[in-house]
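Lecture notes, continued. The same structure-token format from the folding unit now serves as the input rather than the output. Read the line below as a description of shape only.
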């Protein structure tokens, strides 16, 4: 707390808006699952995704590159690297156009990922974050990343609610993932899929 005025203002607050990653969760995501689309190999999907993600500082990118390193996969060099904040990342790796990101990002790129929906549904119910991988403008696979709920977060949420505060979770993550984590913590209001630049306005 840098100034006393903040404490005075906080006393009048009736709503507390909580970020998900790193606040309610540990902020140490790890890759839980790789599922390849028909015609693709899981290790190759992970290798191509990690090659592109290596250029990002996002925590989810770290989970993907770490999993690739654990498997000893040799990453390719990336050309035409392009990062869209809150959406995803793309580039050319070993002659392939590779894109990794959210469902809306895939939609923006015109990639139909409906064949991955059955696999996605199971991961969302577990509160995992999904990264879709497109290879040459077609579905390549799905990466499911999990970030454990912080120890004591449920107790903190209960105490805050006991103080009469309205609690809202605000996250850039997908609605399914956010709602699964919110349910686990007893938070009923969720603002999901909010881009970084839109969080303050929300």
């Amino acid at each position: 707390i840098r100034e006393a005025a903040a404490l005075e203002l906080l006393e009048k607050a009736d709503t507390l808006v909580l970020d998900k990653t790193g606040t309610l969760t540990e902020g140490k995501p790890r890759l839980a699952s790789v599922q390849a689309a028909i015609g693709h190999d899981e290790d190759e999907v992970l290798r191509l995704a990690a090659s592109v993600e290596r250029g990002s500082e996002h925590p989810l990118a770290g989970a993907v590159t770490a999993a690739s390193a654990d498997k000893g996969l040799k990453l390719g060099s990336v050309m035409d690297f392009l990062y869209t904040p809150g959406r995803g990342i793309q580039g050319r790796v070993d002659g392939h156009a590779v894109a990794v990101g959210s469902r809306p990002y895939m939609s923006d790129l015109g990639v139909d990922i409906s064949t991955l929906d059955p696999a996605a549904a199971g991961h969302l119910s577990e509160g995992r974050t999904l990264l879709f991988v497109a290879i040459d403008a077609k579905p390549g696979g799905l990466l499911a990343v999990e970030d454990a709920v912080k120890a004591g977060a449920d107790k903190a949420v209960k105490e805050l609610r006991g103080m009469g505060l309205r609690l809202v979770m605000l996250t850039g993550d997908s609605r399914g993932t956010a709602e699964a984590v919110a349910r686990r913590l007893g938070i009923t209001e969720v603002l999901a899929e909010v881009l970084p630049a839109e969080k303050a306005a929300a």
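Point for the exam: The longest strand covers residues 138-146.
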